[in-house]
Amino acid sequence: MTDLVTLSIEDATTLSRDILRATGLSERQCEAVTRVIVRAQQDDCHSHGLYRLLGCVHSVATGRINKSAEPRVVDLAPSIVKVDADRGFSSLAYEHGIGPTLDKARVQGMAALAINNCHHFSALWPEVEPLARQGFAALALTPSHSWVAPAGGTRPVFGTNPIAFAWPRAEADPFVFDFATSATARGEIELHRRAGTDIAPGLAVDASGDATTDPAAALEGAMLTFGGHKGSALSAMVELLGGILIGDMLSLESKAADAGAGATPLHGELIVVFDPAVFLGGALKDNLHRAETLFGAILSQGARLPSQRRFEARRNALRNGMRIPRKLHAELLQLLPEPAFAG
Amino acid sequence: MTDLVTLSIEDATTLSRDILRATGLSERQCEAVTRVIVRAQQDDCHSHGLYRLLGCVHSVATGRINKSAEPRVVDLAPSIVKVDADRGFSSLAYEHGIGPTLDKARVQGMAALAINNCHHFSALWPEVEPLARQGFAALALTPSHSWVAPAGGTRPVFGTNPIAFAWPRAEADPFVFDFATSATARGEIELHRRAGTDIAPGLAVDASGDATTDPAAALEGAMLTFGGHKGSALSAMVELLGGILIGDMLSLESKAADAGAGATPLHGELIVVFDPAVFLGGALKDNLHRAETLFGAILSQGARLPSQRRFEARRNALRNGMRIPRKLHAELLQLLPEPAFAG
Fold this sequence. Notes:
The structure is a homodimer. By secondary structure, chain A is α+β, with helices and mostly antiparallel strands. Chain A has two domains: 1-61 and 307-343, Orthogonal Bundle (Hypothetical Oxidoreductase Yiak, Chain: A, domain 1), CATH 1.10.1530; 71-183 and 224-306, 2-Layer Sandwich (Ribosomal Protein S8, Chain: A, domain 1). Chain A has 13 helices and eleven strands. Chain A has a seven-stranded mixed β-sheet with strand order 2-3-4-10-5-6-7, sandwiched between helices. A two-stranded antiparallel ribbon of chain A has the order 1-11. A two-stranded antiparallel sheet of chain A has the order 8-9. Chain A starts with a strand and ends in a 9-residue tail after the last helix. The model of chain A has no long low-confidence stretch (mean pLDDT 95). At the A-B interface, strand 4, strand 7, helix 8, helix 10 and helix 11 of A face strand 4, strand 7, helix 8, helix 10 and helix 11 of B.
């Protein structure tokens, strides 16, 4: 017996869907949430993979998620689509809004998708990577709960406030990055707490504002941003564009609204889409080819592109299935409505 | 005699204009370049202030700047304005293109200004801050010359690749940041070299790829990005959006095109403008007010907002003039066509 359990994509999909169904979540939400969770697991993004189901189930149990949410799409302006997620999970709202947004980008050259009133739980790369595979460049950002202190401060103001970007490549996986503007992801600290291991120095302060490597103390105190005042500035930008500009909650407000329930944060998200075909016209192909000069210069010196590890994990998962800790698998099975095959 | 010379805004403006005129640069370019240089000096941004005139004069002397450049504005798509800077300095092209871009943003909700074929020498905040003072949010980015190694590498690929952002505040200076995605600005390393002082550790490697604090060795080797792989990812995004997307040069290409002449980089710039009035409609005022919760939470714990020091310097300069090193002032006077009042 190993400490890992291997699941096929079909196994993981069924497991996720059945767990979510058991919460009473609408079929369409179960499907949309499952799609991003399985994609994360298959890319070996453990903190956004099947592990995240624990948080989703808890979120539904708090009563804060609208289990039968019906996203409403509004054509706000020639370059802006708004989707009200109706207090459901973000994934279904994204799926409703992204088509009209791409249609606008193809005409206007660029367009924004503002998702409001959504419970966001996923990584952002599953939202931008597919756009790059369709030829678009895309930037996504979203606040979360106020867990992160600004540079020069010790008390939480910002969320982990991820920024993701994707760029299309003609004959390779897209260039994709997705990172928290906090020095680490909150999910990573939670995994350390579960594993009983220390976090690295420089990531967080405790409730008194003193540096700590204890994950539990960090979760009670404040995380720090990456890159000092520059990361802090970017995190503020995420609050302004992904919160204020779209008329949705700041991380401070979202945390207050949660009132200790520990549900996935309720707030908004902004996705900005650029259509290189409009920017470049007949010069599109030559320019996409020219971008390979950049990627080649990075790779040829032994440096890596962001997401490279993720794409390798995906190819491996498609061949060999994905592995999750046996302990997590057992916890997930507990969430099923009836005894199930333990794998 | 102090080591500083105090100049009024009028003094600095006249000095800059006269120095640029002496190079044969067209009157309109002299005016546009002088505006941004004096604004930087007045905000005590030394590396982009009057010091930068040395670089501008050298750039014109290399013959690479089109002294009589006439920017051409193209209405590329409903949300895209392009300006061909005609190989002149960026400032005049920006001034031509920004009005039509704001007009588009007011209708579409957002718009992009792509400046091509420009010699860029200024900070980016002078381009985005005025937009926030008119009620817009704006994001600007531009490549430079390949001086910066990607995370995990040791050889230059990226430029210093600044990102700037500005957000309007109803009753305060806008929220504005502008930072190099390199760990420091190249201008700062040059100032250390001039001053004969070491740079901090972690900013650069020498030509062999080894860490260095010697500014001359750093200038020969490669600078590093801020924030490890996250800063490196952002820097790549600047190359893609501020280079490939707008059909203009990568930092690698711009450096190669310079061929050792040491002129200000010739390439492009992307500015993305969001109109909060379109995004928010009747809820604009309430949301701008709500953003003050964020700024208050930062300031109330003793942390600072980016640009705060700059705005304080500006207020001081408006009252008391600006101070530049006497040595720099003497160098600048040498660039005047005839003996001038030495201040």
